[in-house]
Design goal:
By secondary structure, the protein is mainly α. It has one domain. Helix 1 packs parallel to helix 2. It is globular, with a radius of gyration of 14 Å.
Amino acid sequence: MAWIKTIPFAEADKQLREAIRKQRALFPPEYAAPTSENEESIITTHTLIPGALFHAFSTFGVLMSPDLPLSRKDHEMIATVVSIKNDCHY
């Protein structure tokens, strides 16, 4: 696996912290709690470019909106099938 330099939230500057906060605000509430003590995620791989982090992951947050006609279960099913088709391990 490749090593990618990341910036932990505790060390983030104002621009990065704001990008992370705004992006997190768009995610479904169940994504708010970390899944482990380790802060690393696909999102942290974008911490060197706060604008890209915000735009890329805000898109996901908007696509998961409960206001859309698909249910959360439908969203998860689609994401699972796409991940399998892409041979994605996560």
